[in-house]
Amino acid sequence: MHKLILVGGGGHAKSVIDVIETQAQYQINGIVDRPEKVNSTVLNYPIVAADSELESLNREDQYFLLTVGQLTSAQLRVQLYKRITGFGGKLATIISPLAHVSAHAQVGPGTVVMHQAIVNAGATVGRNVIINTRALVEHDATVGDHCHIATGAIINGDVFIGEGVLIGSHATIKQGVSIAKGSVIGAHTYVHQSISKPGVYAGVPARSIK
User: Fold this and answer.
1) 2-92 is classed CATH 3.40.50.20
2) Residue 168 and residue 157: Cα distance in Å, rounded?
3) Is beta strand 100-101 parallel, antiparallel or unpaired with respect to 45-50?
């Protein structure tokens, strides 16, 4: 069983821990978080170090996984990803046994696919991505690095999603649509045409709100 350090000890970490325990391929050796949280626990796993000590935890047989959530901007997850890969840290890929990832799909390192999510044939999911509970990534869709596809979101076939995009819970992206890097798509939004300008979009159909 591989050894694993989680980076981030908030609510998202709890959901990911449940997936890791179900998957039974990694042993969680500890969690990294803010200095004031060191020596506390998350679901009985200890917070063993602060963010500033991340590099000192790197070992030959050690993997890392970002468990910081992404409610809007991907900036923090990107920064931490670059730190870990910069010192040669290895990133785990976590796929729930209750999810379906097609043998004809690709999922990048550092990505987590949560319970009951589906990644269908021909889909490509990048690095450091969250495919959250019951999300659907349909055939031939592309999800860029550092994205969060939130709970129950539907990414239809041939959709292209740029880096760092948040697709909110139960949002639906029409087939063939592209979404610009760094955009935020609100919960329950329906995106029926491509978005070329990064921003915050919401509504049915989607419209720019910020």
Assistant:
1) yes
2) 18
3) unpaired
Starting at the edge strand found earlier in the chain, the sheet holding 178-179 runs: 106-107, 124-125, 142-143, 160-161, 178-179
Dihedral sign, Cα of residue 166, residue 155, residue 189, residue 9: negative
Residues 167, 144: Cα–Cα separation, whole Å: 12
Other C-beta atoms closer than 10 Å to the C-beta of 168 total: 21
One-letter amino acid at 151 equals T
What token pair was written down for 79?
């920064």
Domain 95-202 in the same topology as domain 2-92: no
Q: Does the pTM exceed 0.85?
A: yes
The b-or-e profile of 45-75 (16+ CB within 10 A means b, else e) is bebbbebeebeebeeeeebbbbbbbbeeebe
Instruction: Give residue limits of the domains in the chain.
Output: 2-92, 95-202
CB burial class (10 A; 0-12, 13-18, 19+) of residue 31?
buried
Report d(CA 191, CA 108) in Å as an integer. Answer: 25
Architecture of the domain defined by 95-202: 3 Solenoid (2.160)
pLDDT average per 10 residues of sequence, the chain (210 residues) = 94 96 94 93 95 91 94 92 96 97 98 98 98 98 98 98 98 98 97 97 94
